[in-house]
Amino acid sequence: MSEKLWGGRFEKSTDEMINEFQASINFDKRMYREDIQGSIAHAKMLAAQKIISDDDAKKICAGLEKILAAIDAGEFNFSVALEDIHMNVEAALTEAIGTAGGRLHTARSRNDQVALDTHLYMRRQVREIQRLILELQTELVNSAEKNSDVIFPGYTHLQRAQPILFAHHLLAYFSMLQRDFARFEGVHARADIMPLGAGALAGTTFNIDREFVARELNFGAIYSNSLDAVSDRDYLLEFLSAASILMVHLSRLSEEIILWCSREFSFVELDDAHCTGSSMMPQKKNPDVPELVRGKAGRVFGHLMALLTTVKALPLAYNKDLQEDKEGVFDALDTVKFSLAVFAQIIAGMKVRRENMRRAVEEDFSNATDAADYLVKKNLPFRQAHEVAGKLVHHCIERGVYLKDLTLAEFKKFSPLFDADIHDAIKPETCVASRNSQGGTSPQQVKVQIAAAHDWIKAHGNDNC
Fold first, then answer.
1. CA-to-CA distance for 360 and 147, rounded, in angstroms?
2. CB-side exposure of 308: number of CA atoms within 13 Å?
């Protein structure tokens, strides 16, 4: 006879290779706290509904608390033969308290139980991710505030485009992370729906109280359809999608930091504690952490594609394929949390080389737009002003000089509208200060953005995160 908890139907024991192949305990055991939490709530409900006795419920809850303590202390032996966290806990409970343990699974299936565990686990993990997002945002704002006067070349096509404040650049990533935070709030909302009570797929014949369990577990909603409850993995797909977009943002920031650390840019220097050297080249200081984050982004994208592929053709309701949801989700969770945590340290320890940034905006033509705007303000149509500025740049390139090096007489050769104030108009400080439109890069606007960022962090850094 099979020793499985579901073995009544079978005459043979499961082949050991099949045990290994289908077992999920090696990765789903991380949900032990949620599994026990859900079982305690279920036992209390069964007793409240007179489905099991109060005495049995007390024995079950006490036994589960002891199992929780044993797992926390590292004193619990997980068995591959028992397949998953649910059966490992139930088997240990029945061994510890006897017959009462066998009553715990009344009116539920592993299908709605695993769904419950995953919802509880994801709900908790999302809050942790949001907390880490806030930590990284805090470091970005701190760096922006500390370097609020640093002028920096803004780029398009990786070509110097216009002078901006370095703080403005950092705050762009703050805004990306705001959207990430909101996306994870949506993931939390979809995880905050309770599936327990759906049974295997069709509900149960017992007079259960799903509202009772939802209150015990602090769920905001309950699945209204039992088939949907056991087969829904939308919230995991949403998590992987939100995680992928977050990793895109971290990868983009990684790429910029890698460029800024290079000798060719020399805009920032990372703390020695956050870099590695070369086993062969003694001069090297490698930005390994941003490189790894950039690489790990692809890993998270892969988990999203894998789960999309897994669920795309599954008929209702539960199918064993859905066991494949967890490894990728768990790995993505670990990757995202670690990436956020290390990036907060990277930004906190990053040294800004303001002199090199200043030199970059003085030795280029990123002020050419301002020369054109100067003429527009003298009533020259923009297209004509643009052409004049372009010819000025071409003239400077041929002579090996910059716009700031031209005399007023030289400016006037290209347009009589130029006056002595042109040199002030194309200074980096003027270029930055004049872009005072809402959301722009002027010191005034960046100050507003920093204040708003502080307010946003304060508003969202509550106990939930």
1. 16
2. 10
- pLDDT of 417 > 80? The answer is yes
List, in sequence order, every beta strand (DSSP E) within 288-386: 351-352
Token match 């303001």: residue?
Answer: 354
What confidence score (pLDDT) does residue 357 get? 96
- 1 has pLDDT over 50: no
Give the span between the Cα atoms of 91 and 389, in whole angstroms. 79
Q: 362-460 has which CATH code?
A: 1.10.40.30
Which class would CATH give 7-106? mainly alpha
pLDDT tens digits, residue range 139-179?
999 999 999 999 999 999 999 999 999 999 999 999 999 99
Question: Pick from 149, 87, 217: which is nearest to 355 by CA?
Answer: 149
Ranges of each domain in the chain: 7-106, 111-359, 362-460
Superfamily in which the 111-359 domain is placed by CATH: Fumarase/aspartase (Central domain) (1.20.200.10)
Residue 442 has pLDDT above 60, yes or no: yes
Say what percent of the chain tops pLDDT 90: 87
Residues that are catalytic: 157, 278
**Residue 429, SS3 per DSSP:** helix
Place of tokens 């579901």: 6
